[in-house]
């Protein structure tokens, strides 16, 4: 797909670290901070918080928005639009955080699962699965 109006608007600033309003360095810690902010928005005024609005709309809407953002992300990836892919990836991560808050998943749960998988080749893991005669 051609670059959408949203994706152009969504392309990231060249240096997020240089943003004067940034509250921390451009490191993965930003995900923990984002989660904490989204979680703190639960039950607050949907008129002033997009997270509150999404959480109030419920699980199906949250899942739908996540799916839409994921599709927009893959479209930019396939099109080779690197900057737009960065912006859409941020949207996906934000909407994933909203989905985690709604589902009661903590970032640490996912970090622990990633840690558990660390060092295990995906090829070896797949080969170790029980044989499925229907596959
Ligand atoms: N990272 C984000 C973020 N990414 C995207 N968005 C918002 O997500 C919305 C996506 O718009 P869409 O039109 O796709 O979706 P929609 O408004 O639900 O429209 P419909 O599909 O319902 O028609 C926009 O309002 C974006 O601004 C975000 N809103 C908030 N955050 C972070 O969450 C924090 C808390 O935000 P609030 O909850 O709004 O205070 C912020 O400080 C940011 O760090």
UniProtKB/TrEMBL annotation:
Region Disordered, residue ranges: 1-26
Entry EC number(s): 3.6.1.31
Listed GO MF terms: ATP binding; phosphoribosyl-ATP diphosphatase activity
A GO cellular-component term linked to this record: cytoplasm
SUPFAM superfamilies registered for this protein in UniProt: all-alpha NTP pyrophosphatases (SSF101386)
Domain of life, per lineage: Bacteria
Catalyses which reaction(s): 1-(5-phospho-beta-D-ribosyl)-ATP + H2O = 1-(5-phospho-beta-D-ribosyl)-5'-AMP + diphosphate + H(+)
Keywords: Amino-acid biosynthesis, ATP-binding, Cytoplasm, Histidine biosynthesis, Hydrolase, Nucleotide-binding
Pfam families reported in the protein's UniProt record: PRA-PH
Main location: cytoplasm
Gene Ontology biological-process annotations: L-histidine biosynthetic process
Biological pathway: Amino-acid biosynthesis; L-histidine biosynthesis; L-histidine from 5-phospho-alpha-D-ribose 1-diphosphate: step 2/9
Family of this protein: Belongs to the PRA-PH family.
Name by which UniProt lists this protein: Phosphoribosyl-ATP pyrophosphatase
């Amino acid at each position: 797909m051609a670059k959408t109006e949203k994706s152009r608007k969504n392309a990231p600033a060249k240096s997020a670290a240089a943003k004067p309003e940034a509250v921390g360095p451009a490191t993965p810690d930003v995900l923990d901070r984002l989660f904490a902010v989204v979680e703190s928005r639960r039950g607050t005024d949907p008129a002033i918080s997009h997270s509150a609005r999404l959480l109030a709309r419920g699980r199906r809407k949250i899942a739908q928005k996540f799916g839409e953002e994921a599709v927009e992300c893959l479209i930019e990836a396939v099109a080779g639009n690197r900057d737009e892919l960065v912006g859409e990836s941020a949207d996906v991560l934000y909407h994933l955080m909203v989905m985690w808050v709604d589902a009661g998943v903590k970032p640490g749960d996912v970090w622990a699962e990633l840690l558990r998988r660390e060092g295990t080749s995906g090829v070896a893991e797949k080969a170790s699965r029980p044989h499925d005669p229907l596959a």
